[in-house]
Amino acid sequence: MFASNATGTATGLIIGLVIVVLVVLLLSRTVRLVQQGFVGVVKRLGQFNSIRNPGVTFLVPFVDTIVRVDMREEPRLGDLQAVITKDNVSVLVNATIFSQVVDVRLALYEISEYHVAVDQLARTALRAVFGGMTLDEALSERQRINAELQAHMASATEKWGVRLNRIEIVDIVPPQNIVDAMALQKEADQQKRAAILQSEGQQQAAINTAQGEKQANVLRAEGEKQSAILRAEGSKEAQIRTGEGRAGAIASVYGAIHQGNPTPELLAVLQLEALATLSASPNSKLVVPVETAGLLGAAQALRSVLGAVPEAGAGKAAPPPAR
């Protein structure tokens, strides 16, 4: 009896354990949790059934299955790959692709692995875009490359339910010999620019110097002109004043002479004084006018007159002058 009770208890425990396992299994097949940023695609007996939003969702056990799909923007960095440019230069390029699933049903059922498809499409797009550009264009026009890559891939990824938000070129690695040649070219260009700047500076300095000298000469000429004008005006004014002074003096002398009723003897004295003044000059030559004989005769007459003055005072008549 005790053995049968023990056997029944063990059987009950086993059944209970089985029931618990079945309940847990049933709950795991029925209740699922979809995280934020994901959606759940429910397939019923292998066919598409519905799309479940984030949160707790319930399934039909052993009939429904759920696949979680990431709806967030996903960056994928490709590895370096060799591409050939339009001018036959082989470069290594890699790009980062920012893609996002916008149609879950197309992403799951239009292509087997959309991640792999986007990666392979990016490789072919890189070759196509770089094949239509020279090396200089590829190195200097990354925005153009990004736009052309996105345009090249967008039409293909739309039918997969994947949207390409943007594509960024990460690295463009030319061959080492091209890098060395570019460095030499850059150095030569810098030297050229330095020489041009130096020559332009020297040219500007020469222009500035010439302009300064020109302005200085103009100012100097204007100063000399003004100085000459002032000297001429001063000389003119001096000559006018001198002439006026001489005219006044001559008028005064002439008036005094006429008022004094000069005699020939007085004129002879004045002539003698003028001759004495001429003879006292430092000139090596003295020009004697023709009228000197007359002047000497006038001097002799003046001497006779002066000699006769004391005799007339004594009451004696003066003899007539010799002719």
Structural class determined from secondary elements: alpha+beta
Q: By CATH's scheme, which homologous superfamily of the domain at 74-174 applies?
A: Band 7 domain
Characterize the biggest β-sheet: 4 strands, antiparallel
Q: How big is the Rg?
A: 66 Å
The fraction of residues assigned to DSSP E strands is 15-25%
CATH topology of the domain at 74-174: Tetrahydropterin Synthase, Chain A
In terms of topology, how is this protein built?
Elements: H1 2-30, E1 31-34, E2 38-44, E3 47-52, E4 55-58, E5 64-70, E6 74-77, E7 81-84, E8 90-101, H2 104-109, H3 114-131, H4 135-140, H5 142-158, E9 162-173, H6 176-259, H7 264-279, H8 292-313
Helix pairs in contact: 3-5, 7-8
Task: Using brief descriptors, characterize the structure shown.
alpha+beta; 323 residues; rod-shaped; 8 helices; disordered C terminus; 3-stranded antiparallel beta sheet; Tetrahydropterin Synthase, Chain A
Provide structural commentary.
With 323 residues, the protein is α+β, with helices and mostly antiparallel strands. Among the domains are: 2-69, no CATH class; 74-174, Tetrahydropterin Synthase, Chain A, CATH 3.30.479.30. Helices cover 61% and strands 19% of the residues. It has 8 helices and 9 strands. The strands form 3 sheets. Strands 6, 7, 8 and 9 form a 4-stranded antiparallel beta sheet that branches. A hairpin with a 2-residue loop joins strand 2 (38-44) and strand 3. Helix 3 (114-131) crosses helix 5 and helix 7 (264-279) packs across helix 8 (292-313). The protein is rod-shaped. The model is unreliable at 309-323 (pLDDT under 50).
